[in-house]
Amino acid sequence: MSNINIQRAIDNICSTTTIFTPIVEVVVNAIEAIEEADRADGLIRLKVCRSAQQELDSEESDSKIIDVLIEDNGIGFTEVHGKKNT
User: Fold this and answer.
1) Which of 32, 52, 56, 71 has its CB 3.0 to 4.6 Å from that of 45, i.e. a possible disulfide?
2) pLDDT of residue 33
3) Span 10-69, pLDDT tens digits
4) Domain for residue 25, yes or no?
């Protein structure tokens, strides 16, 4: 199983909030879901979709992030998780 100290990771996240904080929170949730599922083969897939391909030597920064997709093979949403949100 993972050697990640979840509480320390959460404390570090809380100490510095940036534009990337929601993405980091989702990744931490994925780690927790994998640990809760007791999976040794945990997987988190992160895909960042941009609006257009940029030339390597371009000085323009018109390529904007249009979507972020995060997928994991953790426990998923259960009836218990649903009751926490109501």
Assistant:
1) 71
2) 92
3) 777 667 778 888 888 899 999 999 999 999 999 999 998 887 766 666 666 666 888 999
4) yes
* C-beta of residue 74 within 8 angstroms of C-beta of residue 33: yes
Cα separation, 29 vs 37, in Å, equals 12
Q: Does residue 1 sit within a domain?
A: no
Q: What is the pTM of this model?
A: 0.63
Number of domains in the chain: 1
With respect to residue 74, please indicate whether it lies within any of the assigned structural domains: yes
Closest CA to 44 of 20, 21, 13, 74: 74
**Within a domain: 77:** yes
> What residues make up the domain containing 73?
6-84
